[in-house]
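Notes to self after the Tuesday call (sharing in case useful).
The group wants a holo model before anyone commits to mutagenesis around the pocket. I volunteered. Ligand is adenosine-5'-diphosphate. Logging inputs and output together so the record is complete.
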Amino acid sequence: MIKKILVANRGEIAVRIVRACSEMGIKSVAIYTDADRHALHVKKADEAYHIGSEPVAGYLNAHNIVNIAVTSGCDALHPGYGFLSENPELADICARRGIKFIGPNADTIRQMGDKIQARTAMIAAGIPCVPGSEGNLANLEEACMLAGEVGYPIMLKATNGGGGRGIRRCDNEKELLSNYDRVISEAGKAFGKPEVFLEKCVVNPKHIEVQVLGDSHGNVIHLYERDCSIQRRNQKLIEIAPSPQLNQEQRDYIGDLGARAARAVGYENAGTVEFLLDENDNFYFMEMNTRIQVEHTVTETITGIDLVQEQIRIADGLPLQYKQEDVGFRGYAMEFRINAEDPKNNFLPSFGKITRYYAPGGPGVRIDAAMYSGYVIPPYFDSMCAKLTVWALTWEGVIERGRRALDDMVVYGVKTTIPYYQEILQHPEFRNAQFNTSFVEAHPELIDYVTKIPPELRAAAIAAAIAAHEGI
Ligand code: ADP
Ligand code: ADP
Ligand code: MG
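Result:
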């Protein structure tokens, strides 16, 4: 039985894992670099160990982290997302040192982390994939030849990419020529591996992904889909479960396809199979993430299943508690990634001291955050500072609840994406549940609204301030 877990991460996901441990009667161990001395995950965990002065490097040192797990008496390690979560070396080191890795085995991580190997496995299993190159691109000549074959527009993608980086759309050969070296260099810098491949660009697709769970006894189930089509620069902003854009037949089909994909690779633990849905209602496999995902909260909210606790039980060798027919869902959940970024200034990261923070509450509201009043957001990490997840029985209800909760939420001291989300929630296409991954780019006016407060509102605000000051 797992009694003590090392949390190999930071920020809100580290806090999330500590909470799961606490509810299960499991001790938690945090790690932190100098930049995180005052971080919430350090305060919340039962124990915390310093892993160096350099802000990021400590979180990427697998040997040292597993050493701490061993010496502090942990029997398992949870990698969270980002950092080492999809690094097969960490899973290997854990296995060698007798620490249970809360995730799939190293071979599965290796196979699915390589988008070419993942595609090959899916094609073999009869899962539809976007047409593209069979292997990594050898050179620019091969890229041009293959692009000509699949037809423009194409996507040039880092084979080991993640987090929406290392992806470029090329509409013609000229763009391919100018982007090729750039994507290779980006891939090398961001992921340490310069390999790239290409696939057909699906025009105006919806991003639909399926949450799966597999145990060590060969059982695999899906927990329905999430719609992550609201993205900026291939990075998710708002995630929804279930997708308001699918009918029941499509929902059954994609859930089943996700579970089949996971079964085909003998998947164990929680994972996500990502698909694109094209304008003719065809689904294509895109990639699989072999870890807990940022937006797992929306699935938890509609199904009532605690995914992090399930991950821990699976790593402990227990069979899944649910059969496919036991998994139901209710209503709609929507997650907003609250990023410390300035929408008025091209979403430039806005780090610094949170002078005032008030978390929204009330019915159907969940907050996953690692900040508090007085906390200083360090500049070295991802700009996401909180996740707001709301639930309601209906699509209209969840939009109104989201609007109200975003209104309730107070984050002073740094700029955030909250006002931008308020604009998206007002947009008729969004409200009518008709959107795809081009939504953000297709509606630059939403950012203009955030920027330009209408003159009548400005006048009213000034009048109200004067009235308050004079006690009128
Ligand atoms: P999700 O896939 O869970 O929806 P993201 O793609 O936004 O979420 O990734 C979550 C975090 O993990 C981000 O901070 C992102 O930069 C990081 N990340 C994801 N994949 C990789 C990767 N292959 N290498 C490095 N960082 C990654
Ligand atoms: P990452 O590992 O960075 O998450 P993905 O392969 O999941 O990379 O792609 C991220 C996003 O990029 C997708 O959600 C989608 O919006 C866009 N994208 C990726 N591949 C394609 C494609 N072939 N056609 C259209 N859009 C794509
Ligand atoms: Mg992805």
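Two things stood out.
The CA atoms of residues 274 and 326 lie 23 Å apart.
Residues 81-82, 86, 162-164, 191, 235-236, 289, 293-295, 382 surround adenosine-5'-diphosphate (ligand 1) (CB under 6 Å).
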